[in-house]
Description:
The protein has two domains: 11-102 and 182-268, 3-Layer(aba) Sandwich (Rossmann fold); 116-181. The mean pLDDT is 88. α4 crosses α6. It has an eight-stranded mixed β-sheet with strand order 6-7-8-3-9-10-12-11, sandwiched between helices. It has a four-stranded antiparallel β-sheet with strand order 2-1-4-5, covered by helices on one side. It is globular and about 65 Å long. A hairpin with a 5-residue loop joins β11 (316-317) and β12. It has helices at residues 63-70, 96-101, 120-130, 135-148, 153-156, 166-178, 196-213, 224-230, 248-253, 258-265, 306-310; strands at residues 14-24, 36-47, 52-56, 78-83, 86-87, 103-106, 184-188, 216-220, 233-238, 241-247, 316-317, 323-324. By secondary structure, the chain is α/β, with parallel strands linked by helices.
Amino acid sequence: MALPDIGGPAQPLLSVTGLRKHFALPGGLLKRNAAKVRAVDGVSFTVAKGETLGVVGESGCGKSTTARLVARLIEPDAGELVFDGQAVGAQTGLALKDFRRSLQMVFQDAYASLNPRMPVAEAVAYGPQVHGMPAPAARQRAHDLLARVGLAPAVFAHRYPHELSGGQRQRVNIARALAFEPRLLILDESVAALDKSVQAQVLNLLQELKAERGLTYLFISHDLHVVHYLADRVMVMYLGIVVETGPVEALYRTPRHPYTKALLSAVPSLDPARRTRQSPLAGDPPNPVDPPSGCRFRDRCTLAQARCAVEVPALRQSTTGHWAACHFDEGLA
C-alpha cells in the first residue's frame, strides 16, 4: 500500500527544510497583534532510508510538534517536506494521501489511540478496509500482524482495549501502524508510559520489525538511555530549534553543544563515582513567546558572552563528525 522506493538507497527518505509553526495566543486587537508561541522555528533535518533518527530535548522544546508537522496532523506555517525525492503536497509532487499511506505514527497514550468499543483485530483491519482492501484480506492481515507483535490472535483478536495491559495495547498500535505497510514510522514517546521490562520487549520488537521490513524510524523520547539503544543518529532540540545533531556514539561520547552536555550529564548512572551532585542546568527554559535574542540557550549557558546575545549561532560541522550551533565550541571547524 505504501509507495515504492524510487530514489535508491543514497537518497534520503525524508528531508525537512525550514519547518516552522507558531501558535497564536488569545488576545490582541482583532487578533492581529496576538502573541505567538514559537513551537517550531525553522527546523531542518534529513532521515536516511533504514535509519533511526532520535529526537531529544526537554519538555516543550518542540519534539512532538515537529513530529505532528511531519505527519501533517498540523499544518505548518512554513517549510518543505520531501519524501524520497518528491515534494509533499506540491502540485507536481507527492499528494498528501499518498504520503500518509507511507507514514504512520505511534503515540505515547496507547489506550487513547484505540477505539474502546472496537475489538483489537477490527482496529488493526479498519484502516486497510477503508483504503479498499476486502474485509477477509484485511482481517487476515490483522491476525498476521497481531501474531507478529506477540499477541496470539486466538487469544487477543476479540479482546477490547480495556482488557489489555499497557504493553499489549502498544503492541496493537504498532500492528495497526504496520497494517498500511509504511516506510516511515514516527514513534512519539511510544515506550515512555511502559515499565522497564515491558519497555525493553517493545524496543526489541521495534528493532526486529525495522530489520525485517526495511523501516525507517523517527523516534522521539526524553529518555536518553532508550535513544542511545535504538537510534543511529540523534537530533537535539531546544526551544523550537536544532542545536546539535550527529551519529549517536559520537554525540554521546563527545557532545559539542553545552545544552547537549547538560542533558547527558543529567542521565542517572549506576556508578557511585559518577553521581550527579548538582543540577547541570540552571533555571527553566525561557518563554517560547519571547525567546532570548541571539543564542536561545545563552541565559542558561556557562560559556555565554556578549556575542551570544546579538548573533544567532549557525549549525557547523565539528571535528567529531556531527553538527552543533555554538559560537565558542573549540571542536567546531
